[in-house]
Amino acid sequence: MGDDVDRIKSRLDVVDIVGDYVKLTRSGRNYKGLCPFHEEKTPSFYVSQERQSWHCFGCGKGGDIFSFVMEKEGLSFPEALSLLARRAGIEIESYSRGDGSGKKSLFDVMEEACSLFRECMDGDQGSVPRGYLDRRMIPSQVRSSFELGWAPPSWSFMVQSLKEKGISLKDAERCGLVLRGDRGPYDRFRGRVIFPIRDITGRLVAFGGRIVDGDGAKYLNSPETEIYSKRRTLFLIDKAKGAIRNGGHSIIVEGYMDALRLHMEGYPQTVATLGTALTEDQATILKRLADEVFICYDADQAGQAAAIRGMYVLQKAGLSVKVVALPEGQDPDDLLRADGGKALFESCLKRALPLVEHHIKLLSPAIKDDSTRKSAVHDLLEGLSNIDVTDVSPYLPSLAALLGIRDFEVLDALEKVRSGRRKGGRFVDTEISPSLPEEGRDSLEMPPLPEIALISLLWSEFDLRRKCDTREVMELLSDPRLKLMAGSIIMGESPSSLEKRWLEMGETFQLRVLARGGAYLDEFTQNSDWKWRHFCHLLYRQKGQMRYNELRVKMLKGEATTREIREMEDLRQKLVSQKGS
User: Are 54 and 63 in contact, with CB atoms under 8 Å apart?
Assistant: First the structure.
């Protein structure tokens, strides 16, 4: 057994093993992350690639790859040895149960089934599925590397084959391979191309089956079992994890064939969902590997609308979600098999929209239609209410314009949805009435919310008042009332004396601004310096966008000077770089 341990350690890297469970970042010669064995907010968990060991300075646990897997998975040493041996591609004596019985674990049973399915694919009875895969342009080397198999259209092929290998039908049932009916046990998968599904550590946990001809559901998947949960699994995550880490992003598709095609065409960072909406568990897995994810679902609009909720689950988990729009009527497999498909797919990836922007674009036609407005607004607010206000903030102007209200009213509507959810119910009344036109509004209308936030920060943070550039602040503010407030605050008059003066003069606008800004800033968890940078950046961008639009109108009318055209191009480049930063 000692030789087996040494061979496994020589082939596996502790950073890769631990990285399946913990998001690691380089820290000098080591890697660090949040300890998976106790709650902490500041990383105290370190991994040494040089020593091939790990240690947490918070809880004191540590060891090598074996101790980590045993601790995290709750395995005995023989079970951890078996798991890591499979991952290293090393044949060892079976110690899967750790009780000396030699009885196979459920993972071993799944591996036996996979071998049987693969033998059927490669044997005489595999001519039908091989022909089907040939037509789908899946060559033999891909069939082999992705372990594709064939479940013959037999009532009891798997039942009999596992019996011959000494595997109990009870274990086969526990794996979801066998069912019991009035006529006794029978195979779950019959007449289907088989796709093995492995977890992130490489353990075989389930199968997916695609029917080739005849009646029945197009796809049939393993049921939930002791070793398989759809919520915690993604197809091809075991093969994709390295590419996701190295590339900094993942790609999610819906089907097995879509995922295979993307891997074949040079996108090994691709995974597929397994017939369920995206879940928090899947988001956690992806977030450990990279911060950005591209969602590449079929071009059917109704299908995309149904998947939006799952996308917000990913965004809520801290992932930057971008949605890839494919040509109408095509899925990734169709597109990449067509002439020029890869170039077109690449252009679709480059044009992918952030989730919020995509959702706004998707629902805009329905919101503008009186007959569908109410339900569309409800769907939009339900989605946006799931994510941090920081992610919504850049889109407040376009949301306000689309809904016909002011930006702070958008935030108020979102808070109503969140409040309804916190109370255990669903927020139903999301009907929003457009605001009055400018001339009909109250003379005490609130200025833009980002400007209010800037004023509130100046009011509450002495260091910001002391360090800020008065001229730059004034340039960022468009409302003359706020400029007057900013001047009074920056010039050194104490907040208490200012408040007293405003109250004595019967002026309530300033106090309403500060109350509104304070409530808005409470939505953010970051520190004051971050908030200041965030809102300055947002206002700089908005101001630049307004100037760019003004110059573009002049250019289209043929009224722009050469200097103004150069200014417009400079602004365009700045806006593009700011958007990508």
Answer: yes
> Residue 206 burial (CB < 10 Å; 0-12/13-18/19+)?
buried
The C-alpha atoms of residue 445 and residue 400 are separated, in whole angstroms, by 15
Collapsed DSSP state (helix, strand, coil) of residue 212: coil
CA distances from 571 to 549, 561, 576 (A): 10, 15, 9
**pLDDT confidence of residue 428:** 46
Q: Using CA atoms, how far apart are residues 391 and 388, in angstroms rounded to an integer? A: 6
- pLDDT > 70? residue 244: yes
Tally the residues of the chain: 581
pTM of the model: 0.70
SS3 of residue 450 by DSSP = helix
How far, in Å, CA of 22 to CA of 71, rounded? 14
Cα 574 to Cα 10: distance, rounded to the nearest angstrom:
50
pLDDT at residue 95, rounded to an integer: 42
With contact defined as beta carbons under 8 Å apart, do 284 and 311 qualify?
no
Using only C-alpha atoms, the chain has a radius of gyration, in whole angstroms, of 29
Average pLDDT over residues 53-76: 89
pLDDT at site 384 = 92
pLDDT in tens, 389-428: 778 878 877 888 888 877 667 877 888 888 777 776 554 4
Could you tell me which residues are beta bridge partners of residue 252?
Answer: 271, 295
Q: Classify 280 as helix, strand or coil.
A: helix
Phi-psi region of 166 (alpha: psi -120 to 50; beta: other; left: phi over 0): left
Report the run of H or E that residue 486 belongs to, with start and end: helix 480-490
Give pLDDT tens digits for 472-484: 888 888 887 888 8
Task: Name the DSSP letter for residue 468.
Answer: S
Burial 57-69 (b: 16+ CB within 10 A, else e): ebeebbeebbebb
